[in-house]
Each structure stands twice: as structure tokens, then as C-alpha cells.
Predict the 3D structure of the following.
Amino acid sequence: MPDIATFPEVHGHRGCRGLRPENTLAAFRHAVSLGVDVLELDVVVSADHQVVVSHEPWMSATICRTPAGEAITRAEQLRHNLYAMPYALIRQYDCGLTQHPAYPEQVPGPAHKPLLREVVAAADAAARQQGRAPVRFSVELKSTPEGDTLFHPTPAVFLALVLAELQVLGIASRTTLLCFDKRILQQVRQAAPGLPLCLLVEDTKPLGAHLAELGFLPEVVGPDFRLLTPSLVANLREAGLSFVPWTVNEMADLRAVLAYRPQGITTDFPDRLLALRTSFV
């Protein structure tokens, strides 16, 4: 097990999805108040090219309601396509009042899908209020080849919008870009070679095959924590790669992942991981 000096960074997944509605200002503020090191969040694009914080590029039937307050069925959720809506309309939907059924500890409350700039402003204000250093950001671009021009722009356009926003906000120096879509990471390496990148992995394909497809070594690999084995960790270390597994929630799993000494751990319950860190003080 690590000691306090080597304890991994605490990455709040979608803010702190287990405690507050995901990817909302309430979740990010609460995660900062708990003491996370990094806020993990997802971005998509609106019809008017605003960078919106949302896991899906549509209004999820699980957590969102229409501007009229009506539930959205799973059969119709794709029709509530964020890439087909101006942000002014997106903002009228509520994605906080409906408690996620998988997270009974979550405290619901009215919440819109915020812009990336709103999240940064809220997180930085919360850090200042606590007298602590600003948090860092892990920003996942939600991109797939199948979604091009349907649910999001093509990689070059998507990336240009995000990089422009990072520059305006002045947070590139404390941001890592994450993606499963290797095309996005390849575009970043060309357009912004100094920006740290994380390749997200959720399948059992060998690490070497993923890296060969990518064509370069990213700064970080983000595997589904269930993929972790001594062999995979040895391969990551041999390649000189840091790793930040996701999404680790149960105490037994957190302890097991800690034994691998990752750079960070992404969790819906940062309070649980922070409690373990406290025990090392």
C-alpha cells in the first residue's frame, strides 16, 4: 500500500457522481470542497459550437427532463441531440432533479448542463473560498467515428473548439485531455504537442496494440480498473506510462487499486478515497 507521500491523485468523476448530479456545477463545487486534486468531466458541442459539459451528446433518459419538466423516454432520448440544439435551448432542460437510480446517496437538485467556462469559474471560485490552490482538469472529449457530424463535429473541428476554450480560460497548463477516440488524441499531438494526453481503454486488447494504433506514447493511460493486472501494470511501467484507472467506487476495490500505486484514481465517491488518504497522514 502507498504511504501519504505516494498516495495517488484523487480524480472526481463527473465531479462526484455518487454524491451530486453528474457534470453539474453542484457536483464540481462539492468535489472541490471535499478536496479532490482533479475534476474529471466530459464535453460535447452544441449546434452553435459551445463547449458543453455532458457525458452523452443527448439528453439522457436516466437523469434529464424536458424544458416542460417532462420525463424523457429511452426510446426518444437520441432525438434530444445536443449537437442539434443551440445552447440556449440545452440550458432549459433539467438534469439534476431526477436522482440517478444507481446512486442512492446522490443529493438531487435543479441543474442545467453547464458550459465548460461555467465549470472552470465555479471550481476556481470554490478553491479560492477554501484558500486552496486551483484544481486541475481532466477533460474527456466524447467522440466516436460513428458520431461524426451527427452527435458532434469531426475531430479537427471538435478539437479546435476545445483548444480555443482552454486558451480563453487560461487553463491549458492544468488540463489533461482524455479520449477513447484515438483520432482526437492524434489531432491534439499535432495541434498542441505540449498538452498532456490520456488514452482511455475499456477493452482487453493488448496495451501494445493500442499504442501502435495511436502512433505515439501518451502521458497517461486510463484503463477501466477491472482490466488491471500485475502484467498490465508492469507493461505500463516498462513503457514509462503513468496510469489513472476508472471508475473505482467500492472500498475493497479502492484498496486493491491502491496496491498498484497508480498516479491517480477516478471515482464517483472522492470522499471514500480521501478518507483512505487521511488514514495515511
In short: The first strand starts at residue 9 and ends at 13. The mean pLDDT is 97. The radius of gyration is 18 Å. DSSP finds nine helices and nine strands in the chain.
